[in-house]
Amino acid sequence: MAESLEIKKLHVNVEDKPILKGLTLTMPKGEVHAIMGPNGSGKSTLAYAIMGHPKYTITGGEILMKGENILEMDPEERSNKGLFLAFQYPCEVPGVRQANFLRLAVNARRGKEVDVMEFYDELEKKMKLLEIDEKFIKRYLNEGFSGGEKKRNEILQMLMLQPEFAVMDETDSGLDIDALKVVSRGVNELRGSNFGALIITHYERILRYITPDHVHILVDGKIVKSGDADLATHLEEHGYDWIVKETATAS
Q1: pLDDT reading at 89 higher than 80
Q2: Mind listing the pLDDT tens digit for each residue in 124-149?
Q3: CATH number for the domain running over 4-90+164-250
Q4: Which residue of 16, 20, 203, 205 sits 20 to 30 Å from the alpha carbon of 233, by its own alpha carbon?
């Protein structure tokens, strides 16, 4: 599928230890996919491998974005092509003001110098949507922010960059109900035929606000079961033991 993010038989090692073991997944534009699974199954490894973190060594397989193999691209090039990663633990960057960072990132993503007034007008609208106080944009990137503020800031970046594909690594982690609703609102704002999202999570709760088209269960580095949103509800009710046991029996 040309307008898709395709992961084909992906094998990834971390410090010579195999983590992903032939994972295959196709996410077309216009769809939201959720990846769920127990601790240690490889969920975050998948996110960082897609974005090109040097700690994660690809030992086999392909990652194609709109038919183009991105494995030879550095993370910046992947971002400029339209790929976005929302971190589980967004880092602080002292000395870099948020407005400056965002403007440089938007210019790089759009391949042109965006008019200053146009940029700030758009930024103000996105901040209101996410209920972000204007004072935060003048501060250094994520410095001194609470966990919830950092997550809102990640979604603000995503809204401004307007990626074609987003990978969200446990964005719901540490969020209270109000913050979760706001973050979900931001994701739903982008949802449409020109945007695909891969939501990595342990829990169903974020999927109550961002309804996935497909849910995949990751166990021991492979997708072992896929379904619709009801699969996430089943996991919430029954946990992961049944699928882990079922997978062990099958192997």
Answers
A1: no
A2: 999 999 999 888 888 988 888 888 88
A3: 3.40.50.300
A4: 20
Show me where the domains of the chain are located. 4-90+164-250
Supply the pLDDT for residue 69: 94
Two structure tokens written together for 17 = 């230890």
Token duo for residue 131: 């209920």
| pLDDT tier at 87, thresholds 50, 70, 90 | confident
For residues 106-114, average pLDDT: 91
The structure tokens 């589980």 sit at 88
d(CA 183, CA 193) in angstroms, rounded, equals 20
Residues 6 or more apart whose CB falls under 8 angstroms from that of 139 comprise 97, 98, 145
Q: Which residues of 157-183 are buried (b: 16+ CB within 10 A; e: fewer)?
A: bbbbbbbbbbbbbbbbeebeeebbebb
Whether 1 shows a pLDDT value over 60: the answer reads no
